[in-house]
Write a structure and sequence with these properties.
The structure holds two protein chains of two kinds. By secondary structure, chain A is of the alpha/beta class. Chain A has 20 helices and eleven strands. In chain A, strands 1, 2, 3, 6, 7, 8, 9, 10 and 11 form a nine-stranded mixed sheet that branches. In chain A, helix 9 crosses helix 10 and helix 9 crosses helix 19. The longest helix of chain A is centred in the first third of the chain and has 27 residues. Chain A is globular and about 65 Å long. Helix content of chain B is 74%, strand content 1%. Chain B is mostly helical. Chain B has a domain of 200 residues: MetI-like fold, CATH 1.10.3720.10. Chain B has a two-stranded antiparallel ribbon. The radius of gyration of chain B is 24 Å and the shape is flat. In chain B, strand 1 and strand 2 form a beta hairpin. Chain B contains twelve helices and two strands; from the N terminus they run αββααααααααααα. The chains are: A alpha/beta, B mainly alpha. Chains A and B meet through helix 3, helix 4, helix 12 and helix 19 of A and helix 5 and helix 11 of B.
Chain lengths: 428, 299
């Protein structure tokens, strides 16, 4: 008898939470729940997303949004695991390109072409950026931010050393040498996660070879390869910079995400950093004083005697997509608009100096206006290779570039590896 | 009822009770370990991104690719270095600390707490702590070197291919030595004091007592520690992932971090599973060989 009672008690203990769970579920069924995963972890951008979500919930009282902010690099894994285990978020962030396309190919991303066609929704965005999230003529997301890579510098150090803003590569190198002599680290770089250093590589090959070389190498156009001299020259220039002592000691171990290289800028040990425009938002919250008094930037200088258009920029897009598995598709699609529309774009500009590719945003500060000018006059926007290429090739690009910075690979070897992998993946 | 049938009933009862107690643990073990291992082998025969449901059976193609992959052998080599370093550094160091703690010097309680600290920190915290310690610009290590006049030795510890592996190995040893210290200490307290007393009468003290009494009687503990260390090192992941992510340029890549990279970063779950299966086979082979070789020594 006692035994039976014991068993019954244990069974009750095990079953209770299950049954309880069932009860609460039926209660909240009246309210639709959707989840939003994004990477706006810093205070300024995070608050914008949070308030836009609140605005959405106010207008749609029947929907509750679970707002989840993620750190940049871990996010990539987290989303993949969620997708693979069949439990993806309803609305999620991506950078368009080959990474998102991998999910599209598996049928995990919702096609929103028809939704965009309704009420002229499509027309609120800059078409070039909307197209970055388009595959096979179908839209798989909306652009929420555009970013461009710029050279940020410390105005104080530049003034003190009497330096001018460089427009050509040789002027840039002269500045690097002067800064080095004065005892500063010329260029801060945190290359542990590999993409920060890759930005410089992409810019150099864009300037040297021009926009078409990479595009054609990717499209496997005959006569174009990843062993193009422009890629090799870009690698050589990077290693020249390394030899010159342009970078801090141990770049490949410094983590940008946790602030390693930004700290060098804030403490004025280093004078320049080549980073995406997201850097501005970080400076604004992490070092407001520095932001107000010392932060300046200029476009990546042109390389003399090369084919690249000097207005071209390396950049990218932040995008939001919906999962094809979402149970509340209507609500998810509606939310997309709230986190990419004009109101959102205005808030991003005002609070974080981030530009959204949406029409009608009023720019107020000189930083915003200057960034907008650079972004809007660019003839081409080269998306970061690692986000543009299929993941396996993108990773190899980052690995080989990191090895270039560590001088454990020659530019020729790096290019050869890229071409071999491209052949393996594309089959030609 | 005669006695033999009573015995049988008793035995049945005992078997039932044993089953009842083992069942929950066995269920969990089967669900999360045995089933997982089996699925890993199944996945390793697929071409699968790990995202969607489109899977293509490709037989042993992943394994054929695997044996030709230089990065795999490189990471296996790193794993073997980790095995050797773990066993040859952590175990002796743990034993030394344990001997220190069981000796009759003052303050052993305080020391025991201090020595055990690294084990109490979470791995990620340990990794970040040591990354800051090694930081080339703001780190304690370079700061220290500069102030004792060894500025020429300053380096970007985790960022350089030459030093990254050593730097991570030191951290791993720092974290795991306390565990072996505790195991060894437990082993030491099991050795009866009388043995030492009679040895003393025979004139065996100090070093002699250690080599002829302590060490032989500790052999079981040492063997268990070695096997734990061996298996742990072969499937190690945590600190390398936190501190270097397997980089720079694969300098600290282990089989587990490489598997993670292939499976989760490059969307190649089939290939990642093949690496995992390979890891399983390597660990199984090495561990059972070691167990077999040392089996006679066990008492």
């Amino acid at each position: 008898m006692k035994k039976l009672l014991g068993v019954a008690l244990i069974a009750a203990c095990i079953l209770a939470p299950v049954m309880g769970g069932g009860k609460t579920e039926s209660k909240s069924a009246e309210k639709q729940k959707i989840s939003l995963w994004h990477i706006s972890v810093d205070k300024a951008m995070g608050s914008v997303v949070a308030e836009c979500v609140d605005r959405f919930m106010k207008d749609n009282p029947g929907v509750e949004v679970e707002n989840v902010a993620n750190e940049n690099d871990p996010y990539k894994t987290k989303l993949k695991v969620a997708m693979g285990s069949g439990n993806p978020p309803d609305v999620f962030h991506s950078w368009g390109g080959g990474w998102l396309e991998a999910f599209v190919k598996e049928g995990m991303v919702g096609d929103i072409t028809a939704d965009l066609d309704k009420d002229g929704w499509r027309n609120i965005y800059f078409p070039a950026y909307l197209d970055m999230i388009k595959f096979n003529g179908k839209n798989y997301g909306v652009p929420s931010l555009m970013s461009s890579v710029l050279v940020f510098y410390n105005k104080d150090i530049y003034n003190k050393l009497g330096l001018k803003i460089p427009t050509t590569w040789s002027e840039f190198i002269n500045n690097v040498q002067t800064i080095k002599k004065a005892g500063y680290i010329p260029i801060a770089l945190g290359n542990k996660s590999k993409w920060p250093g890759a930005l410089t590589f992409i810019y150099l090959s864009l300037r040297i070879g021009g926009y078409e070389v990479f595009q054609n190498a990717y499209q496997r156009v005959p006569g174009y390869t990843f062993e193009d001299p422009s890629f090799i020259k870009a690698g050589k220039i990077i290693q020249e910079l390394v030899d010159m002592g342009a970078y801090p000691e141990g770049v490949n171990g410094i983590n940008y995400d946790t602030g390693g290289s930004r700290m060098l800028i804030y403490t004025e040990k280093a004078s320049m950093i080549i980073q995406t425009s997201g850097f501005v938002a970080s400076v604004k919250t992490e070092a407001p004083d520095f932001y107000q008094k010392k932060l300046g930037f200029f476009p990546f200088p042109m390389v003399e005697g090369s084919k690249g258009d000097p207005t071209d920029i390396v950049g990218g897009v932040n995008a939001y997509s919906i999962s094809s598995k979402t149970k509340n598709r209507d609500a998810a699609v509606k939310l997309l608009r709230y986190i990419s529309d004009k109101t959102y774009g205005q808030m991003m500009a005002d609070r974080a100096d981030r530009l959204a590719p949406v029409h009608g945003v009023q720019l107020t500060t000189p930083i915003q206006k200057e960034m907008f000018k650079i972004a809007s006059t660019a003839k081409h926007v080269q998306i970061y290779y690692d986000q543009f290429l299929p993941p396996e090739l993108g990773e190899l690009h980052k690995d080989t570039t990191q090895a270039l910075f560590g001088k454990s690979m020659t530019p020729e070897e790096a290019a050869k590896k890229m071409e071999a992998k491209a052949k393996e993946i594309f089959g030609k | 009822m005669n006695t033999s049938s009573m015995k049988r009933v008793n035995k049945l009862n005992i078997a039932g009770t044993v089953f009842l107690f083992i069942f929950p643990a066995a269920l969990v073990y089967c669900l999360f370990n045995v089933f997982g291992v089996a699925m890993t082998f199944y996945y390793s025969t697929l071409k699968w991104t790990g995202i969607g449901t489109s899977m293509q059976y490709i037989g042993l193609l992943n394994f054929l690719k695997l044996v030709k992959d230089p990065m795999l052998w490189h990471s296996l080599k790193n794993n073997l270095i980790l095995v050797i370093v773990s066993i040859s550094v952590q175990l002796p160091l743990g034993l030394m600390l344990a001997l220190l703690l069981t000796s009759k010097i003052k303050g052993t309680k305080f020391l025991r707490t201090i020595y055990f600290m690294p084990m109490l920190l979470s791995t990620v915290a340990t990794g970040i702590l040591w990354s800051l310690f090694y930081d080339p610009n703001f780190g304690l290590l370079n700061f220290f070197l500069e102030h004792i006049g060894l500025a020429s030795l300053k380096s970007g510890w985790l960022g350089s291919e030459k030093t990254a592996m050593t730097a991570v190995l030191i951290t791993i040893c720092w974290q795991y030595t306390p565990m072996y210290m505790i195991l060894m200490k437990a082993g030491l307290t099991n050795i009866p004091e009388e043995l030492y007393e009679s040895a003393r009468i025979d004139g065996a003290t100090g070093n002699k007592a250690f080599w002829h009494i302590t060490l032989p009687l500790l052999s079981d503990t040492i063997k268990i520690s070695a096997v734990l260390s061996l298996v742990g090192s072969l499937k190690y992941f945590d600190l390398t992932y936190v501190m270097t992510g397997g980089g720079p340029n694969g300098a600290t890549e282990l089989m587990a971090t490489y598997m993670y990279k292939k499976g989760f970063v490059e969307f190649n779950m089939g290939y990642g599973s093949a690496i995992a299966a390979f890891m399983f086979l390597v660990a199984l082979t090495i561990t059972s060989t070691v167990q077999y070789i040392t089996r006679r020594r066990s008492f």
